[in-house]
Amino acid sequence: MSTNLFEQFETTSAAAWKQKIQVDLKGADYNETLLWKTDEGIVVKPFYADEDRKDNSNASSEFKFNISQSIFISDEKTANYIAVNALEKGANAIEFIAVKKFDYKQLLSNIDTADTFLYFRCSFLDSDFLNEVSKYVNSKNCFFQVDIIHNLAKSGNWFKNLKADHKDLEAIVKLANNSIGIDATLYQNAGANISQQLAYTLAHANEYLNHFGGDAAAKFHFNFAVGSNYFFEIAKIRAFRKLWNSLLKEYNTQSEAHIFAQPSIRNKTVYDYNVNMLRTTSECMSAILGGANTVNNLSYDAIFHKKNEFGERISRNQLLILQQESYLDSANTIANGSYYIESISQQLAEKALAIFKDIEKAGGFLKQLKDGVIQRKITESATKEQEKFNTNELVLLGTNKQPNKEDKMKSDIEIYPFLKMNPIKTLVTPIIIKRLAEDYEKQRLADE
């Protein structure tokens, strides 16, 4: 008798399973009854088999994900204190957010820059200064979120102008490691569907590849926002790695995509805000299982409270629990072999590639951005999603379903949590970030 349990059972083909299901349906149509098709055309089946795996290659090699904490630089001494404390309490990566030049020596005091992953997200462009920072840090673990196209897409304008911005970026890329950051969070937070997010990120990156050539691929890194569609978000990150590798083949080069991921703000709420912890936990798990290199959690109260020690500690501990108590410390390849996730990844990649090719045929991402095509497509997707929320088809628990009517928030809001429109002249129409619950929350606050 064989000791292998699998050899004791007859194999059953996918066709046989489908036939059995059709018998049990008693005349109902299999496709109409059991196949679910998403708004972006992804087909979800009731069961999967090995034949659904069109690509058996792993999405990424196994590694331990980094735990990051975001720190806004308003005062270098305070920011340094928070960073050192975060590193002592379990983080091994820090994202510094800056709106102006800062004293980097004081900011990085007592921080091991060789072993700490450092991300600098700057809403200004100064090549001389950023090269100084890069030289001082002198580490391959240092990443600069320098993305002039993101600034154009989000604000509607270049930092200075097209020529000057590219000149500054060229100077940074020439001297600094990891100096081409693709900020794709804008697309998710503005309401683009997953296929669009992947396509726009790829087309966005391709603008830089066209400018700098394939040799610069090793200096790219990507920032993704992760939504609440658990398995699809796992598949999103895996699909992007495949797309990135395919694109680099066209430039006769290869480089593993470094991915920094954080929860989306689109589904976060002011009312019943503790539910945000459940949302961010799910989203961080998707990022980890999808294969993000670094995960940066969002505090449950980030959209309406100023940065505070309690909120930051909770968000950091969520990641520590996932890493050390849920044993997801090296789980980025755990989805390998999941027929369901691999099938979704493949479909998302195919849909995104089709959109990407259309963008390139039409002149590229920048041209479509200037023509307003990207903005229009995102608005169409966001409007569909908003309508689903408004009609309760898309549920945010505690907001449009089972809200706590006794919950009062007007006196607890420290920062304005709603969309702000600045009436300024822009070169292109900005891509607008807006949370799903904003209009509902405005009305509820007015009624308190």
Please describe the topology of this protein:
Elements: H1 14-24, H2 30-34, E1 36-37, E2 43-44, E3 66-72, H3 76-88, E4 93-98, H4 104-107, E5 117-122, H5 127-137, E6 142-145, H6 148-155, H7 162-175, E7 180-183, H8 185-190, H9 194-212, E8 220-226, H10 230-250, E9 259-263, H11 275-290, E10 294-296, H12 309-325, H13 339-361, H14 365-370, H15 373-390, H16 438-447
Parallel strand pairs: 3-4, 3-10, 4-5, 5-6, 7-8, 8-9, 9-10
Antiparallel strand pairs: 1-2
Helix pairs in contact: 5-7, 9-10, 9-13, 10-11, 10-13, 11-12
Question: Would you kindly provide a written description of the structure presented here, covering whatever features stand out?
Answer:
The chain has 448 residues and is of the alpha/beta class. The chain has helices at 14-24, 30-34, 76-88, 104-107, 127-137, 148-155, 162-175, 185-190, 194-212, 230-250, 275-290, 309-325, 339-361, 365-370, 373-390, 438-447, and strands at residues 36-37, 43-44, 66-72, 93-98, 117-122, 142-145, 180-183, 220-226, 259-263, 294-296. Helix 9 (194-212) packs across helix 13 and helix 10 packs across helix 13. The chain is globular, with a radius of gyration of 23 Å. The chain starts with 13 loop residues before the first helix and ends with a helix.
